[in-house]
Specification:
alpha/beta, single chain, 10 helices, eight-stranded parallel β-barrel, about 30% helix
C-alpha cells in the first residue's frame, strides 16, 4: 500500500510554516493534501498560525488575540530561516483558500487551535471557520483536538471532520466509535502496533522517513503527514501518489 502524503503546515522543512509561500510550494511540489493551523484574531478573522503569538514565527512577542493589523509583522521564521523569506505576510484563511481553489484536486486540513476556542468560544470560532471554508467546502476538512468543536461542525454542516488525539487509549477509542469522525490523527510514536480499526482514515504525523511512511501504510494508515513533502515525493513509490500538475 502506498500512502497519500499530507504537507504539514505546508512545505515547512524549507519554507516558513503556515505561510502562503509554504502552502503554495507544497502544492507545486505535488502534494495532494496540505494541513495548516488557524487562530482567531481580535477582529474575528482566522489567520494561519500554530501558536497564539508571533514570538516563534516573527520574533515578536505579540498575542494574536490582541491584534487586528499585521502590516508590521513578517512570519518568515527569522530564528530558523534567517531573512530568506522576509517579508512573509501573515496569511488569512480566505487567502489560503483562494490558493487552494487553484488546485481543485487538493484537500486542505484546517486545524482550529484550541487556544482560540478557549479564548473566543466554540460557536464564534467554528461559525467563522464554516463560513470561510464554504467557498471550498468539498476540498476542506476541519480538524481539531477539541471534540466539542468537531461535534459543533458535524451538527451544523456536512464538512468532513478529523479528530487529533494526544492520548491513544481506550477512552479515546470509545469516543471515536461513538462520534465517527472522518479522520483520526495522531503522532505515530503514540501508536505501538496497528491503529484502531474504524470507518475513519488514519493520518499519522510527523514522518520524514519514506521507509517509515511505507511501514505505517502497510499497517493500514492511509495518510502520512510530513514536514518535508518535496523530498518524500521524490521517493520512487511515494511519488506515485503525487498530484503534481504537468
Amino acid at each position: 500500500m502506498i500512502p497519500v502524503l499530507v504537507a504539514h503546515r505546508g512545505y515547512m522543512e524549507r519554507y516558513p510554516e503556515n505561510s502562503l509561500s509554504s502552502i503554495r510550494a507544497a502544492l507545486e511540489s505535488g502534494a495532494c493534501m496540505v494541513e495548516f493551523d488557524v487562530q482567531m484574531d481580535a477582529a474575528g478573522r482566522l489567520v494561519l498560525l500554530h501558536d497564539d503569538n508571533f514570538k516563534r514565527t516573527a520574533g515578536i512577542a505579540a498575542s494574536v488575540f490582541e491584534l487586528n493589523d499585521y502590516t508590521q509583522i513578517s512570519v518568515h521564521e527569522p530564528e530558523r530561516l534567517g531573512d530568506t523569506f522576509r517579508p512573509e505576510p501573515v496569511p488569512e484563511l480566505a487567502q489560503v483558500l483562494a490558493v487552494l481553489l487553484e488546485y481543485p484536486a487538493a484537500t486542505a486540513f484546517v486545524e482550529i487551535k484550541d487556544e482560540s476556542l478557549q479564548r473566543w468560544g466554540v460557536s464564534k470560532v467554528v461559525d467563522q471557520a464554516l463560513s470561510s471554508v464554504a467557498v471550498a467546502r468539498q476540498q476542506c476538512v476541519i480538524i481539531s483536538d477539541n471534540l466539542d468543536a468537531l461535534l459543533y461542525v458535524k451538527a451544523r454542516s456536512d464538512v468532513r471532520i478529523g479528530w487529533v488525539i494526544h492520548r491513544y487509549n481506550d477512552a479515546c477509542y470509545k469516543l471515536a466509535r461513538q462520534h465517527q469522525p472522518d479522520f483520526m490523527l495522531c503522532n505515530y510514536r503514540r501508536i505501538k502496533n496497528t491503529p484502531w480499526p474504524g470507518n475513519w482514515q488514519w493520518m499519522l504525523y510527523d514522518i520524514s522517513d519514506p521507509e517509515l511512511a511505507m511501514e505505517w501504510a502497510n499497517k493500514g494508515v492511509d495518510l502520512i503527514e510530513t514536514r518535508d513533502i518535496g523530498t518524500l515525493l521524490q521517493h520512487p513509490r511515494l511519488k506515485q501518489r503525487s498530484c503534481r500538475r504537468g
